Sequence to fold (593 residues):
Amino acid sequence: MKKWLSIFIFTLLSTSPLWAQDLFSAQTNTRQVQVGESFRVKFIMKKRGSDFQPPDFSGFKQLSGRNVSMSTTMDASGTHFTLTYSYILEGKKPGAFTIGPASATIEGETYRTKPLKITVKPRQSSPSSNGQPGKPERLLLKPLVSAPEVYVGEPLYARYRLYFKDQIGQPQISEEPRFDGFYRRAIKQDRIRTKSERYQGQRYTAGDLRQMVLIPQRPGRLEPGTLQLEVPVNEATGQRDWFGRPITRTRQRTLRKTFPPIQVKALPESKQPASFSGGVGEFSFEARLSRQELTTDESLTLTLEVKGQGNIALLELPQPEFPEAFEVFDPETDQQVKVGSFGMRGSQSAEYLLVPRYSGTYKLGPIRFSYFDPQAERYRTISSPQFTIDIKGGQVPTTPPGSSAAAPPSGTTGEQQQVNYLNRTLRFIQTKTADWQPQNRSLLRTPGYWIAYGSLWLVALFMVILYLIQRQKRHPDKQNQRRQRLAARRSQKHLAQARKKLRAGAHEAFYTELAQALWGYFSQKFDIPLSQFTKDRLREELRRAGLPAEDTEDTLQQLESAEMARYTGLAQKNPEQDFERSRLLLTKIERRL
Fold:
């Protein structure tokens, strides 16, 4: 019995390191590299963990990382979770180096990976791809921009173009320019399209690996940075097999190119109008009022819309000055932007809800929008017409106490101003003598005083009750409507903050704001505290609200994407696309709910 127990304990102890190694392991795609050649290192967790600590990569240049990916798969044996942290490194000098263990906490215990030994060899001179000196290269990388000189805020089209003559594998970008001083927006590509093109007198097959729109944010000479590409190339060895076919080998080629500098000109300040809000391009502007005659029980909307081609995603709409007689709610904004080889174009709009508080005639506008036209090198201003709003019914505004007679409420008519002035400066002349009371007799002891006093309270109470009943009839669900407006308003504020974090490159803070916009919207919308809100609860509430199944799944997917970015502390592959999807999703849900 003791013999079998000893064998069992020995087997358990001998296999536990293998089990631990399977939970948290380190991998690399190669053990030998040349100086300047890049390689990839991965640290893989098979269960959810925390407190990941990468090793010291001394002796290597870190080109990328940490890059995080997470996946969950299901098969006959159950559900399998994988969380991968990857880095792209480059050998700096020859020698034998050791990448130490990474550590992480899994189920309350600390795990460490095995060290990785990497040999860095001296860099060999790379001959031309055809093996003959003086012949043109068979593989070329060229960063291209649509214009070498632009104004601040003027979009330009940029791309990474690869020229090749041999058969190649899937290129991998190991280092990308930082684009400091630029706002960057990627152009969506379903696949890399290639075509035959003549370059430097040679015929190549060419394809754009990545396309984007860049918008400079400051003047001066801006240098985006360095681009490095890893390309597997099938090269001829000069030998043939038994059947006479040429024998090829796959060689990993590393291409490095410095992105061409961009000279950015400052916008002229001498003739810059006060209504200029950063628009650079060619735009149109329109202001629309839903109605110009209404009562105090109704509302109206003011819509501002800018369309055109330029930095439409970055400009700010004009801020109208509203008369004090209106209660103005935060605007509902909408942005439709497309990017391509043409640059950037689309529209941006804001819709204000106005609720009148007083009757009278009021003026609104004109509202001015100014932008800079880089083709004409001048500012242009578009003005809306002046709107006259006639409000009937309700209370006539009076000048607030303590204000001067020369400052009546904005928009009131001359007749109303005169009446208000007289009411403040003149008193009525008494035409009857006052009732004299006998001396030493208190007014509080008279029955008439208490009867009048009680009657006034009864009348006041009756008026309050009547007002509440009428208000309930007009607005049976006003509290719910206010809660609905508050949900949309708070989500818009979080989205605005998320946009600022995205422009600043703070991806972790961006996804935090994005998650708060989504969770906060649904928590306020369905009146459920965040502490009691789960994805299953959200799915059920959306189903009860009649939201289509595809919109529900899109919502849950966006929440999971934002949570993963917050959990790992890193941005996803395309944060700009995540922002647009979240904004459009909330707009669609708000309209349907």
Observations:
- Residues 7-20, 125-133, 399-430 have pLDDT under 50 and may be disordered.
- The longest helix spans residues 447-474.
- The two ends are 70 Å apart (CA to CA).
- The CA atoms of residues 329 and 585 lie 22 Å apart.
